[in-house]
Amino acid sequence: MASGTALIYDEEMTTHKLLWSDPVCDIEVPERLSTSYEQLKCYHLVERCVHVPAREGSEEEILLVHSSEHLEAAKSSQTMNEEELKRLSGNYDAFFFHPNTYRCARLAVGATLQLVDAVMSGKVCNGMALVRPPGHHSQRNTANGFCLFNNVAIAAEYAKLKYGLQRILIVDWDVHHGQGTQYIFEEDPSVLYFSWHRYEHQEFWPSLKESDYDAVGLGKGKGFNINLPWNKVGMGNSDYLAAFFHVLLPVAFEFDPELVLVSSGYDSGIGDPEGQMNATPEVFAHLTHFLMQLANGKLCVILEGGYHLKSLSESVCMTVKTLLGDPVPQITGEMAPCLSAIESIQNVRAAHKPYWKWLMYEVPPIKTAATTAWKGSAHLLPVPVHLVKEMDETEIKVLVSGFYADLVKEDKTLLSLGSMLAILDKILQKEVCNGIAESPAAAVSVAVALRHSVRFGFQRVLCVFVGDMQIIPNTEDGKILMIHICEKEQSGKASSKHYISLNWKEDAEGNDFFSAVLGFILPVAYSYQPNLTVIAVGPNRSLGIRGISLLFALLQGLSESRIFAVIEDTEINLMQSVAKALVGASMPHFGVYIPPTQEKVNRTKILRDQFQRNGQEQWSGSNENVLTGLGIVIRA
Ligand code: Q9C
Ligand code: ZN
Predict the structure, then answer these.
(1) Ligand 2 centroid distance, CA of 232 (Å)
(2) Ligand 1 pocket mutation, candidates 29, 144, 147, 311, criterion most atoms within 8 A of CB
(3) What are the backbone dihedrals phi and psi of residue 612, each rounded to the nearest 5 degrees, phi first?
(4) Which pLDDT score, from 0 to 100, does residue 609 have?
């Protein structure tokens, strides 16, 4: 599998600038590019990327999307004087020409295509292109909204033509609607276009009826255009995550793209004068991380807007850091989407229900370490791992006698805890980010691990346990949130605020489980904001390797990617998949969709209602309340 992250930047794209006074256009400055690049250098991210040079896009490439009239008009700007440039610019809604604009726009196209080539050829796994002018407002026959050529749209056509791709996903997280991209692919089912945008019931630029949620595509392209309009300013991290959990990700996984392109505008970030939104730079790490789970990791991020230089450059850094595989930073603050966001999400889900099975039902909304036990078989793991020396018996005794005193007598169990605790300590001490422990008794190991983590000082530990669990760990006054995925009904222990039992019988690995992960487990987990995530696999697991890998991949956005895996299984395939997921190699393929049975949907509903009742009080340590709507935590 390809590895590495490409970074494309060419200083020449800073020469395109506004030569006269124009309050509409004066925010699109060359410093947007140079400041972002400087910040990347400052975090030593540039040197970690594969440098790929930009090139000029050819006329032929531009004509994949644009009319020759538009190309000729742009070309004619090269030899104009300032007065003529100003007059030409006046023909468009919010665009300015500079004598070098045409050259920069061709570099922006070429840089984007270079990125597609680097990813599609396997030279790198993913990458980012820092380009100006941006592209997503540009249409077949016109410049618009600071955009001359539609870089991302050209890239999609190019990828279809050159690599024979049949399914490309474009995610447009810029705060403006990329109406240019929508128009270009409206009738094209091979390109799925998703855009969220400030809309305010059509008050906000470009103030188009067709930016609303009911523009779902035309003809054969019906269902392949997804608009999520924000009708209020101030949308934040939780609103963006909810949009991913409940709209984009279910559809994107069902679509199963071969390549993902991001129209990556950061004017949707906090501080931006255009967007007036509240999402912090960290959220872009999470969005990037989720998209990295698609298309075998083939992800091209192309700069669009973003006008607050500090917010822009920090967000660019978060994106590139995540592309490089660094731990995903913790999201702080409010974890509940606001009512206006919920309303928009419900509207777009309803509009797209006819086209996407995963939206069909009122579904839930609701450096890797291994032990020396692996010395012999470590070479079987797909990725390099550190081997951790086990704790010796006395060390463990001292540790465990503090709490599970009766365990000290059982020598066999005790010994098995040694390797487990050695790895856990490396995670707690932040020497490694995540780790895998093999255990002959997962439930016991997990109980000890959880207690140990809480004693160590962790305030919120999320534990997802898959399979039978003989000991149900104490939830330590809310310092532990248990999500137990098991086959049998847990008799005796009813779901409570901090113990949620998901009874998943038979083929739990089917796509209904996927819906439950996105619609229930992720929102609950994100609202809890754990400092450590423990995922354990016990005996009689009702989840297959794919389901378990999915959990590991998606939960990595939490607790700064601090994940401890405990696996009661010597199955090398499972270990391999978990190790892969932990180092960020992408997930196994999900295959053909099997819709959830209504019975399963109902079961999830009951669970959700139960969870909501239990959640009337607050999570300890945070102040969210749980309400109705999508069954997720909603901001008051
Ligand atoms: N009254 C990008 O972010 N605003 N373009 C026009 C007219 C134009 C934004 C306001 C904003 C364009 C790539
Ligand atoms: Zn924008």
Answers:
(1) 16
(2) 147
(3) -65, -40
(4) 60
Domain boundaries, the chain: 5-359, 393-626
Any ligand 1 atom below 6 A from CB of 50: no
Number of Cβ atoms within 10 Å of the Cβ of 621: 12
- 239 vs 635: CA distance, rounded Å: 9
377's tokens: 């078989």
Please compute Rg for the chain using Cα positions. 25
For residue 421 the two structure tokens come to 């605790």
The DSSP symbol for 218 reads -
Biggest distance spanned by C-alpha atoms of the chain: 89
Give the distance, in angstroms, between the CA of residue 514 and the centroid of all CA atoms in the same chain: 15
Asked if 430 and 405 count as a contact pair (C-beta separation under 8 A), the reply is: no
CA 55 – ligand 1 centroid, Å: 27
Cα atoms found within 13 Å of the Cα of residue 80, Cβ hemisphere only: 22
pTM: 0.87
CA–centroid distance, residue 177 to ligand 1 (Å): 10
Phi, psi of 326 (to 5 degrees): -70, 160
**pLDDT tens-place string over residues 341-371:** 999 999 999 999 999 987 875 543 223 444 4
Query: Does 393-626 carry CATH code 3.30.390.30?
Result: no
Ligand approaching nearest to the C-alpha of 94? 1
Q: Which atom of ligand 1 is nearest to the CA of 136?
A: 13
* 66 in active site: no
Burial category of 362 from C-beta neighbours within 10 Å (exposed 0-12, middle 13-18, buried 19 and up): middle
pLDDT averaged over 10-residue windows placed end to end, the chain, 636 residues: 94 98 98 98 98 98 98 98 98 98 98 98 98 98 98 99 98 98 98 98 98 98 98 97 95 96 98 98 98 97 98 98 95 84 95 89 40 43 54 70 66 75 89 87 88 91 89 82 80 67 62 75 88 92 83 90 87 82 65 51 61 45 29 34
For residue 205 and ligand 1, the question of a CB distance below 6 A is answered with yes
Distance of alpha carbon 631 from the chain centroid? 21
Residue-wise pLDDT for 229-248, tens only, equals 999 999 999 999 999 999 99
- CB atoms under 10 Å from CB of 25, counted, come to 17
d(CA 59, CA 584): 38
Who's near 326: CB < 8 A, 6+ residues apart? Answer: none
Counted residue by residue, the chain has a size of: 636
Q: What is the Cα–Cα distance from 382 to 400, expressed in whole angstroms?
A: 33
Q: Which residues of 405-428 are buried (b: 16+ CB within 10 A; e: fewer)?
A: eebbeeeebbebbbbbbbbbbbbb
CB of 415 shorter than 6 A to ligand 1: no
Class of domain 5-359: alpha beta
Of 142, 147, 148, 176, the one to substitute when testing ligand 1's pocket (max ligand atoms within 8 A of C-beta) is 176
Topology alike, domains 5-359 and 393-626: yes
Q: What is the pLDDT of residue 597?
A: 58
Structure tokens at 328: 């995903």
